[in-house]
Amino acid sequence: MMKYKHVFFDLDHTLWDFEANSREALHEIFTAQNIQHLLSCTFEQFLEVYYSINNNFWELYKQGKVSREKLRDGRFIETFKLFKYHHTELPKQISNSYLKISPYKKQLFDGAFAVLNYLQNKGYNLHIITNGFNEVQYIKLHESGLLPYFTSITTSEIAGENKPHLAIFDYALNLAKATANNSIMIGDNFEADIEGAVKAGLDAIWFNPGKITQQSSLRFTTIHHLGEIEKCL
Question: In what order do the strands lie in the sheet with 221-223?
Fold first, then answer.
């Protein structure tokens, strides 16, 4: 008899390759808007600045210090400012373009479909818990072909809290008609996915393709490739 009935996955950086898809979308926009000429920078230079600012905005958003709207536009406005471009209309247009383009990108981590098929065939109920906006995350799931695998989708927007907050895990468990004891969480973000899940009473598998060192007294399993899940479940 299986110990678990329910397997919860994070989406971005775990199944859906956020970095690859984001880079592809930003490169399209960078080229179409001739940003190299406008800001006198290469794409790699633009990307380095954008990623740093974007990470800061997401951290502020998680802390409740900026709104969803401020995050969406502010990360591009502030990036352009660092390249001495202080008008806001174009960065806002680029923000809109990015939000329209990036969710339709389809790059997944290697082994994603294989492990989902394996788990489904073994009889597990599969679910998503993701920090993200409802509409955007559903587009990613649909366009990439992931959506049919999952019986419930919990986004931080619909749950009203971000991981690692206990409330989003409680919401997801209730939605899935699951309990913490018969559920396991798989995700890449140690604080949000692993610490959050374990503190909510779930077991956890840390997807760590970058082989980051992490000191913790919590009990969890670490994998470096999605295919290793088959050895765990």
Answer: 152-155, 125-130, 6-9, 183-187, 203-207, 221-223
Higher pLDDT, 62 or 58: 58
> What is the token pair recorded at 218?
């919590």
φ and ψ of 65, to 5 deg:
-95, -15
We find that the CATH architecture of domain 6-17+108-232 is: 3-Layer(aba) Sandwich (3.40)
CB-CB contact of 119 with 126 (8 Å): yes
Q: Which pair of tokens denotes residue 214?
A: 């992490």
**Which candidate, 1, 14, 3, places its Cα nearest to that of 131?**
14
Long-range contacts of 16-24 (CB under 8 A, 24+ apart): 16/107, 16/108, 16/109, 16/140, 16/141, 16/144, 16/146, 17/107, 17/108, 17/109, 20/105, 20/107, 21/102, 21/105, 21/106, 21/107, 22/102, 22/105, 23/47, 24/102, 24/105, 24/107
Where in the chain are the domains? 6-17+108-232, 18-104
Mind listing the pLDDT tens digit for each residue in 68-106? 889 999 999 999 999 999 999 999 999 999 999 999 999
In this prediction, residue 1 carries a pLDDT of 59
**Closest C-alpha to 30, from 68, 86, 83:** 83
Q: Verify cis geometry, omega within 30 degrees of 0, for the bond prior to 164.
A: yes
Query: Does this model's pTM top 0.85?
Result: yes
CA 78 to chain centre: 22
Q: Considering the domain 18-104 in this protein, what is its CATH number?
A: 1.10.150.240
